[in-house]
């Protein structure tokens, strides 16, 4: 009886530790009036300091590296389309134009789609490659109506781009949308 109870307590502690470790890898992003969560892929760290300094929703880099010198990183951000008259395709077209200006000769390819939000949505992915300029990036866009969460994966070489693409896809797949967020402001009464 005592052995069963000890094993039960040990199993509960292991489950709690696993859930806590998963929670520490998960980031809740609250930007542009929307909230969603993403989870760092295995072998990657969420860097809250970098995200805060750069005004990003979340920032991830390889374990054992620092943001400034990592060979690959991913950041997550959100843009609002409210009042712009734009849609996700306008945003993607604008980004393509900016890539072409900043990196002449860049090759932009359809990266396919990634299922997100527990199978309820889809991310549209584009690959931007310019070997001469050392640009190896993928961007995933998720249409949530008035807001577009987007994920940018950048690698320092084609080999690293290929190697870490599954981690990027895993991070995008982890996306869970919670909906619009309303901010309540308490005003003192006179």
Helix tally equals 4
Q: Can you tell me the overall shape?
A: globular
Average pLDDT score: 84
Strand tally is 10
**Unreliable parts:** 1-23
The topology string of helices and strands comes to HEEEHEEHEEEEHE
Which second-level CATH architecture applies? 3-Layer(aba) Sandwich
Strand content: 35-45%
The CATH top-level class label: Alpha Beta
Oligomeric description of these chains:
single chain
Instruction: Trace the largest sheet across and list its strands.
Output: 3-4-5-9-8-7-6
| Overall tally of structural domains | 1
Main sheet summary:
7 strands, antiparallel
Ends distance:
64 Å
Helices and strands: which structural class? alpha+beta
Written account of the structure:
The chain has helices at 2-25, 48-54, 88-102, 158-173; strands at 26-31, 34-39, 44-46, 58-62, 72-80, 107-116, 121-130, 135-142, 147-155, 176-180. It is built from four helices and ten strands, in the order αβββαββαββββαβ. A seven-stranded antiparallel sheet has the order 3-4-5-9-8-7-6, sandwiched between helices. It has a three-stranded antiparallel sheet with strand order 1-2-10. The radius of gyration is 20 Å and the shape is globular. It has one domain: 3-Layer(aba) Sandwich (Protein Transport Mog1p, Chain A). With 190 residues, the protein is α+β, with helices and mostly antiparallel strands.
């Amino acid at each position: 009886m005592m052995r069963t109870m000890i094993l039960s307590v040990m199993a509960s502690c292991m489950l709690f530790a696993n859930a806590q470790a998963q929670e520490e890898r998960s980031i809740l992003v609250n930007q542009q009036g929307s909230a969603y969560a993403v989870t760092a892929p295995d072998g990657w760290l969420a860097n809250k300091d970098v995200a805060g300094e750069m005004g990003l929703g979340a920032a991830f880099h390889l374990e054992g590296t620092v943001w400034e010198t990592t060979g690959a990183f991913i950041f997550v951000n959100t843009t609002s389309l409210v009042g712009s008259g734009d849609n996700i395709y306008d945003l993607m077209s604008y980004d393509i134009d900016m890539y072409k200006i900043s990196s002449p000769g860049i090759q932009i390819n359809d990266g396919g789609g990634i299922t997100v939000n527990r199978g309820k949505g889809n991310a549209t992915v584009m690959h931007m490659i310019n070997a001469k300029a050392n640009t190896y990036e993928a961007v995933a866009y998720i249409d949530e109506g008035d807001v577009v969460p987007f994920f940018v994966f950048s690698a320092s070489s084609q080999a690293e781009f290929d190697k870490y693409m599954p981690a990027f896809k895993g991070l995008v797949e982890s996306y869970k949308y919670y909906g619009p967020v309303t901010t309540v402001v308490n005003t003192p009464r006179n």
